Amino acid sequence: MEFRVNKNCFHQALSAVGHAISLKTTASILSGIKIVANDNHLLIIGSNSDIIIEKAIPGMIDGVRVLEVNDKGSVVLPAKYLRDIIYKLSDDIHVKLNANHSVTIKSAEIVTDLNGLNSGEYPDLPLLDDAVTIEVRSEEFLEIVKQTAFAVSNSESRPVLAGVNMTFRDNVLSCVATNSHRLASSELSLETKVTGSFIVPSKSLNEWTKLMNEGEDIVHIIISKSYIGFKSNHISLFSRLIEGSYPNVMGLLPKDPKTVIAVDTDQLIKGIDRACLFARGGRNNNVHLEIVDCTKLRISSNSTECGKIEEYQTIKSIKGEGEVSITLNGYFLMDALKVIKEKEVKLSISGAVKPVLIEPGNGAASHFHLISPVRSS
Amino acid sequence: MEFRVNKNCFHQALSAVGHAISLKTTASILSGIKIVANDNHLLIIGSNSDIIIEKAIPGMIDGVRVLEVNDKGSVVLPAKYLRDIIYKLSDDIHVKLNANHSVTIKSAEIVTDLNGLNSGEYPDLPLLDDAVTIEVRSEEFLEIVKQTAFAVSNSESRPVLAGVNMTFRDNVLSCVATNSHRLASSELSLETKVTGSFIVPSKSLNEWTKLMNEGEDIVHIIISKSYIGFKSNHISLFSRLIEGSYPNVMGLLPKDPKTVIAVDTDQLIKGIDRACLFARGGRNNNVHLEIVDCTKLRISSNSTECGKIEEYQTIKSIKGEGEVSITLNGYFLMDALKVIKEKEVKLSISGAVKPVLIEPGNGAASHFHLISPVRSS
């Protein structure tokens, strides 16, 4: 194996696939990055047991030559050392594989020898023979992930809840995530004949959003029996699917809320953020919401140790009963509000013990959020 | 106690004095910030057992009223809560002390009650009756601190080495710091009749540099029996001095070096930085320097586990013997090089087991650095 590569391209690729590499791994081969030099491109691969990221460096980018392969081959090199050393070298980098899986890296007057491992010991990419592929506009896909993935469960007691339930049906992709105290749901129209439901680890989705730049147009979603893949231009991420069946959560949607109010989204975020300061000591981050005189929303929280806070915000419109109070986990409410881009947000309250529905205020919502109240002590 | 204050001024003051507050303190009064409202200014005070920071907020800043005191008084409030809540409020902040040392903070429609403590329990500022004061140009003082404070010892076995030895004599301030493997020394001319030598904790000096903005002209250094204070405009820092006698280190300066070379400072920093990548596994971060053919400096390091690196840099001038090699702790060398602003750096080598002298290359050095070699295995 021997090639010359542009420093920035190489470093960028190493950083991207580095996202998949855990420093805590016990398998030393997985603390490495696999480099494959083919005739006209490099493949850079990083992996842990759940996620595989593969980045390709082509010969030319925007008409400029960034890679020249003299000799095909492959090797696995220690991820952290390789990334650090490439970062500290100058533009033109020359890599040559020696015997014993070590490589010599030359750049200007600097010569580095790096001990590597046999690339034959590196785990294979998942077989995707039976896979189907769906095309989605990248920006819309990132949006639907952002609107839902935060709501998964961090607890290990129900593994399916650590994933986002992605369902393709009738040219609609729907994503649902819940930790059984709050739920986020979002839908996206697309064109596909694929029908099916899959549970995708939220970690994999979050990694994918980090890898994407704004410029990407289309993401190809590749689904096989136990893997899902995302592919866009020169980068791919493959993730194991979570096995099991996802609970049916749609029955939780309140059908006939007692009170529906609209408030300013940004103001409400700021108010809840302040109330959380005093709520964070408590077990459930209790923030109290109360409608006062049908015109004001009172936001408050208190901590016996530190003190208390209260404020009043203007209700922009109200339907239904005028005397309502409810206690919510302030952080759950903040999470939901933060993915609402619209100026106004609509809260539908069905009583002190029933889930609150949170939606964008314009009514044309493709996503909504449910939060179960905390029982006030 | 009752006052109105501009949010930004208040928050900035709380952040500044917050530097002195340790969250790990066992004395709950020291996890608080003391606020004293006087007729025409606020004093905001934070402290741990070693450092006290005091910031004053005057009534007017640049012709704009930022403070109005209605009622004098004082209280101690929990630092973290107070800073967080003030940060999340709007411009105009109204603070009023209630019974039981709680305060009510109002800002627009937001009302907060914060539980505080009796300010009478807060430790007094150090008595500075016998103090002398020295004026130094702030920028020059920060420079001399930056050139030396990094070199102190982190070990607790010799407490005096955790401080910078500041000596005033014959209108010169000299600062020396060492961890017994490396030493940094710098001098500054000033006008003072004070003569004496003091050991100042490097932590206190570092905190002071963080508090200083570029705009400050003069720093007043106040020295009493067991305290040193720094004062500039509206901010003061008081620090306990370290007791004990500082070792005499000036005898370590090499008198007749075998070889003196000059190299490009920036290039050398980059080369040592690269070599450190492979040195960090070892016990002493061994980086090898070798003069080759009187014209090249070979920089190298190796790790049996990971690999090795070597590079050659151009020697700009050389005096004395042409065949020299030495092994240094790469991080110590980097630290010294980083405070050298000059384009060229001079290394004076007296042999493989004697300290290397590192100085700015222009010869008019007010500061120098010594690093003891590592004995090569």
From TrEMBL, chains A, B:
Membrane spanning stretches: none
The record's listing under Pfam families reads: DNA_pol3_beta, DNA_pol3_beta_2, DNA_pol3_beta_3
An annotated Gene Ontology molecular function? 3'-5' exonuclease activity
DNA damage found in the keyword field: no
The terms describing its cellular component in GO are: cytoplasm; DNA polymerase III complex
Where in or outside the cell is it found?
A: Cytoplasm
Mind listing the GO biological process terms from this record?
DNA strand elongation involved in DNA replication
Q: Which InterPro entries does the UniProt record give?
A: DNA_clamp_sf (IPR046938), DNA_polIII_beta (IPR001001), DNA_polIII_beta_C (IPR022635), DNA_polIII_beta_cen (IPR022637), DNA_polIII_beta_N (IPR022634)
- Residues covered by the DNA polymerase III beta sliding clamp N-terminal domain: 1-126
The chain positions of domain DNA polymerase III beta sliding clamp central read 136-248
Q: Which residues form the DNA polymerase III beta sliding clamp C-terminal domain?
A: 252-362
Top-level taxon of origin = Bacteria
> Could you tell me the keywords of this UniProt record?
Cytoplasm, DNA replication, DNA-binding, DNA-directed DNA polymerase, Nucleotidyltransferase, Transferase
The keyword tRNA processing belongs to this UniProt entry's keyword annotation: no
Q: Which Gene3D superfamilies match?
A: 3.70.10.10, DNA Polymerase III, subunit A, domain 2 (3.10.150.10)
SMART domains assigned: POL3Bc
Please give the function described in this protein's UniProt entry.
Answer: Confers DNA tethering and processivity to DNA polymerases and other proteins. Acts as a clamp, forming a ring around DNA (a reaction catalyzed by the clamp-loading complex) which diffuses in an ATP-independent manner freely and bidirectionally along dsDNA. Initially characterized for its ability to contact the catalytic subunit of DNA polymerase III (Pol III), a complex, multichain enzyme responsible for most of the replicative synthesis in bacteria; Pol III exhibits 3'-5' exonuclease proofreading activity.
Fill in the subunit field for this protein: Forms a ring-shaped head-to-tail homodimer around DNA.
Q: Could you say which protein family the record assigns here?
A: Belongs to the beta sliding clamp family.
Protein name as annotated: Beta sliding clamp
